[in-house]
Amino acid sequence: MYKSDKKLLILDADGTTIDAFSAIEAAFSHHGLVIGDETRFQKRHKLLKYMGGLKEFPSIVRKNLRKNSRAQLIDTLTGIYRQEARLYDGIADLIRELIAAPDITVGIVTRNVTIEPLETLRQLFLRHDIDIAELDFLVHIPLKDTKTAQFRATREQFGVNPARAFICGDEHKDFMAAVSTGMHPFMVSYGFECHDRLTTKFEIPHELISRSSAELCCRIRHALDLGVLAQAPYQNSSRLMAPNIQ
Predict the structure, then answer these.
(1) Which pathway does the record list (predicted)?
(2) Which residues, at least 6 apart from 181, have a Cβ–Cβ distance to it below 8 Å?
(3) Mean pLDDT of the chain
(4) Can you tell me the distance from the alpha carbon of 120 to that of 118, in angstroms, rounded to the nearest whole number?
C-alpha cells in the first residue's frame, strides 16, 4: 500500500525551529519601533504579528501598512534572518540527527515572509552548520495558503503511511492541517501562539504541546527512536507541572 517504510517529519520554520520573535523585534528596533513583549506578540495574528499591536502604536500600524514602508521592514527582516537570526536551543543538533537517520524522511514546509525565503533559510541554517540541500525537501508556500495541501502532497510524494508521519508547528492551523491529513502533530507554545490560546480557544490537547525547544527535541527523539531512551527517560512537561492532588 505504501512504497516507503520510513517515518516522515515535516518541520516548521518560524516560531518552531527559528526564533522568529527575536528577529522581528530586531527588525522593528532597527526602524525605531517597539513591538512589545513576547506575551502580547503571541496574541496578535496574521498581519499584526509583523506590523505591531494596535494598542502599542496605532499610527505606526497605519504607516507600515503603506507598501513602501512594509517593503523596507521586510528588507530589514531579511537581512537579520540571514545574518543574525538563530535556531532555538537544541534544534540544530536535532536536525543533523534527523538528516543522518536512514529511516527518516525530513524537511521543511514554510510560509516565511522574507525576500527569497529559500535563500534566506539556506544562509540561516548554514550558520548553524546545516546544509539545507541535505534535507529531503524544502518547500515555501504563500502566507495566505494553509499547509494542508502541501502536507498531503509531501506524504504522498514519499509514499509514507500517515501513521508514520509527523509535523511540527506553533499555530492552530498547523494542528488542523496535520489532523486533516492523518499526521501526528508536535505542537509548541513558545512560537506565534501561546499555550493558553492553543489549549483554551482551539482545544488542542496539552499533551501534544511542548513549552520549550528542549522538550520538543525530546519528544521527537522519543517518538522517532533517535536514542533518547539511552540518555534519559521522556517526561511530559504538562505532567511535571500538574498539581499533586491527594
Answers:
(1) Organic acid metabolism; glycolate biosynthesis; glycolate from 2-phosphoglycolate: step 1/1
(2) 148, 151, 152, 155, 162, 165
(3) 85
(4) 5
The answer to whether residues 46 and 141 touch, using CB atoms and an 8 Å cutoff, is no
For residues 147 and 108, what is the distance between their CA atoms, to the nearest angstrom?
A: 11
Per DSSP, the three-state class of 229 is helix
Burial label for 60, CB within 10 Å (0-12, 13-18, 19+), is buried
pTM for the whole structure: 0.84
What angle (nearest 5°) sits at the alpha carbon of residue 215, between those of residues 93 and 121? 45
Residue with cell 489532523: 179
The superfamily in CATH containing domain 7-18+87-224 is HAD superfamily/HAD-like (3.40.50.1000)
Distance CA 219, CA 232 (A): 12
pLDDT per residue as tens digits for the range 102-120: 999 999 999 999 999 999 9
DSSP string for residues in 82-127: HHT--BPTTHHHHHHHHHH-TTEEEEEEE---SSSHHHHHHHHHHT
Q: What is the DSSP letter of 199?
A: I
